[in-house]
Amino acid sequence: MSQTQFNQRLLSFLEQATTPFHAVEQMVLQLEAAGFRPLSGAGNLQAGQRYYLTRNDSSLLAFIIGSDAPPATGMRMVGAHTDSPCLMVKPRPEKLRSGYFQLGVEVYGGALLNPWFDRDLSLAGRVSFAGSGGQLRTALVDFRQPLAVIPSLAIHLDREANQNRSVNPQTDILPVLAIADGQDKPDFRDLLAGRLREEYPGLEVGRILDYELSFYDSQPAALVGLGGDFIASARLDNLLSCFTGMDALLQADGTQSCLLVCNDHEEVGSLSTAGAQGPLLLSTLRRIAGSEEQLSSLVQASMMISADNAHGLHPNYADRHDDNHGPRLNAGPVIKVNANQRYATNAETAGFFRLLAEREQVPVQSFVVRTDMACGSTIGPITAGGTGIRTLDIGVPTFAMHSIRELAGSEDAANLARVLQRFYNHQGSLTPA
């Protein structure tokens, strides 16, 4: 597959995957088309077969049972996360202020708030409702058109805006949806019910019971730059890694046992049923192994590559990076290192990744945060600590991480997919002699 074909598929995925629920839905469609089938609650796993399972509709785990017994050769594993910082709608969101209909929102994760102003926003997520007969039903919803905007305050009313404007998340970022002067405020749940009926003709939608909904930028993902050097999109952190890991798994030859896990809730600590601190991965590995003794052997022989975007060297803020560790866009995937274990990389796992990349003729970079700055983290240390599996943290260099629209190099994701595919197909022990 050419880089152009890869990027077009990536852009399409980013446009459809507007929430973690929609990301999992899109991945399931592609996995099923490639012969993966849902993992049932009983029965033996068969060599050569492909399976997947989901958790909370927002996390996904897919794997291939290789021709050799997995405990003997281990699992080649790639991990990523499906969630991104965003604005989520509160349970009782309707507000009528100064003649405008607005919705109250809660900030999810460490969002960069200023870029949310003056964007054409739409709304998507999961809704629970009473179906015919009063039973509980759930469905995904996506309005797929601009519904709202958070207007900036004009500079004439805040002359210090360019020097010192802060954002109060309780009062300053309520999206405006309509003019409602002299009217009763609209019922948001009625709006949801109407949209569900539009998306699912014939679906009997009774009372809306609850929802998990987030606003998103309706501008599509795109290639930008004079030579198409960049990918600009919402949710590159970390749907780019989810797609890259999935593409590599779909291209795997199936000789070796390999696995992809895409967890929700990484941006808020990973402690949930669907998060990396939950039981999804370890319980699945236990089933693959077949016994606790075999699980121990499987863990010892396995390796995880945790893929999560890295901070690219910003040309306007080069001093925010360590002098020797400023990754450039389109210069290869980044090995992320932190002495205080905010990343799970060690010399062994980093060295193995470098060898894989060399065989694909893909350059590799390194990232170490400035010693006088705090370091973020990933699912890598959580997975390593919870399972005992050797883990490496890598990522594609990115600008504007946690903004409503982020920027990555147009060559990096395809190159990373090639390295991950080689990892999935690697024959022989992952343990040094």
From TrEMBL:
Transmembrane segments: none annotated. SUPFAM superfamilies: Aminopeptidase/glucanase lid domain (SSF101821), Zn-dependent exopeptidases (SSF53187). The keyword Repeat does not apply. Its cofactor is Zn(2+). GO terms for cellular component: cytoplasm. Keywords: Aminopeptidase, Hydrolase, Metal-binding, Metalloprotease, Protease, Zinc. One of its GO terms (biological process) is proteolysis. Its EC number is 3.4.11.-. It comes from the Bacteria. It holds the Pfam family Peptidase_M18. One of its GO terms (molecular function) is aminopeptidase activity. Belongs to the peptidase M18 family. PANTHER family: ASPARTYL AMINOPEPTIDASE. This is M18 family aminopeptidase.
